[in-house]
């Protein structure tokens, strides 16, 4: 008999590796350079600079509320993500809780990677190079890739894989949060695009690769907390964690991945 758990694990590893390779390739492709150079990179020509100029010719001086709006939109995505995780915890949904934790960790990892790339590339902000704005980030706060876009895309991707029905809300929210960074004058379009690809790919790769293991670790903890919360409830049988509505690696969308719920509480 074919071991679907082994096949599923291999396919998850392959898909995760492919997503990370895509992220690395696009970040490298979109990078304006900077490696090995002591001087900051100034992007003054090219499609990204042209789009930035065109946007700010229309807007004029970027309104200060655009920067606030970009922060608010990111907070809203974060709140939606937390609510999904809280909902999974209340239902004792091991896959949902594990998936939320893993995609959250993947988003944080993507943010850390974006910070590292910034220090390597040293790209000047477009508001210092092309169009001056009053609230331009200080010198040394580099532009490529966009941290806001990385976080927004990571959280939005997490919402999509955890609750696919929320995709119609999560994807536009993530895109708006990222694009507001260009409208606010803080980033070139290529900064935002690189951040979105990095955040989305790393978050989904983490979900694919680590959620089954994290769910196995979370499941007995959820059973224990349920027993603690209901000390006199029972017949001595541990309640089975609910996983209704939670998307799981192997439950669709990524071909070739089997369902790992074949042992323990998932039997």
TrEMBL record:
<feature type="transmembrane region" description="Helical">
    <location>
        <begin position="166"/>
        <end position="186"/>
    </location>
</feature>
<feature type="transmembrane region" description="Helical">
    <location>
        <begin position="192"/>
        <end position="210"/>
    </location>
</feature>
<feature type="transmembrane region" description="Helical">
    <location>
        <begin position="62"/>
        <end position="86"/>
    </location>
</feature>
<dbReference type="InterPro" id="IPR036938">
    <property type="entry name" value="PAP2/HPO_sf"/>
</dbReference>
<keyword id="KW-1003">Cell membrane</keyword>
<keyword id="KW-0812">Transmembrane</keyword>
<feature type="region of interest" description="Disordered">
    <location>
        <begin position="230"/>
        <end position="267"/>
    </location>
</feature>
<keyword id="KW-0472">Membrane</keyword>
<dbReference type="InterPro" id="IPR000326">
    <property type="entry name" value="PAP2/HPO"/>
</dbReference>
<dbReference type="GO" id="GO:0016787">
    <property type="term" value="F:hydrolase activity"/>
</dbReference>
<dbReference type="GO" id="GO:0005886">
    <property type="term" value="C:plasma membrane"/>
</dbReference>
<keyword id="KW-0378">Hydrolase</keyword>
<protein>
    <submittedName>
        <fullName>Undecaprenyl-diphosphatase</fullName>
    </submittedName>
</protein>
<feature type="compositionally biased region" description="Basic and acidic residues">
    <location>
        <begin position="258"/>
        <end position="267"/>
    </location>
</feature>
<keyword id="KW-1133">Transmembrane helix</keyword>
<feature type="domain" description="Phosphatidic acid phosphatase type 2/haloperoxidase">
    <location>
        <begin position="100"/>
        <end position="207"/>
    </location>
</feature>
<dbReference type="Pfam" id="PF01569">
    <property type="entry name" value="PAP2"/>
</dbReference>
């Amino acid at each position: 008999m074919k071991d679907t758990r082994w096949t599923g694990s291999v396919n998850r590893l392959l898909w995760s590796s492919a997503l990370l390779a895509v992220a690395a390739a696009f970040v490298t492709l979109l990078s304006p350079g900077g490696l090995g150079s002591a001087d900051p990179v100034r992007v003054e020509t090219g499609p990204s600079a042209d789009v930035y100029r065109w946007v700010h010719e229309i807007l004029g001086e970027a309104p200060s509320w655009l920067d606030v709006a970009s922060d608010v939109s990111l907070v809203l995505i974060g709140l939606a993500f937390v609510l999904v995780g809280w909902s999974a915890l209340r239902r004792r949904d091991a896959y949902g809780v594990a998936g939320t934790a893993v995609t959250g960790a993947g988003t944080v990892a993507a943010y850390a990677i974006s910070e590292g790339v910034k220090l390597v590339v040293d790209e000047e902000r477009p508001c210092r190079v092309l169009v001056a704005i009053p609230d331009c980030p200080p010198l040394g706060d580099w532009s490529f890739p966009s941290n806001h876009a990385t976080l927004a895309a990571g959280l939005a991707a997490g919402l999509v894989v955890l609750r696919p029905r929320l995709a119609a809300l999560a994807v536009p929210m993530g895109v708006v949060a990222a694009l507001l960074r260009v409208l606010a004058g803080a980033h070139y379009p290529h900064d935002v695009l690189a951040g979105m690809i990095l955040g989305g790919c790393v978050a989904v790769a983490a979900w694919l690769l680590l959620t089954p293991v994290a769910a196995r670790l979370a499941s007995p903890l959820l059973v224990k907390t349920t027993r603690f919360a209901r000390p006199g409830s029972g017949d001595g049988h541990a309640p089975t964690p609910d996983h209704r509505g939670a998307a799981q690696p192997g439950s669709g969308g990524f071909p070739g991945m089997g369902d790992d719920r074949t042992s323990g509480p998932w039997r």
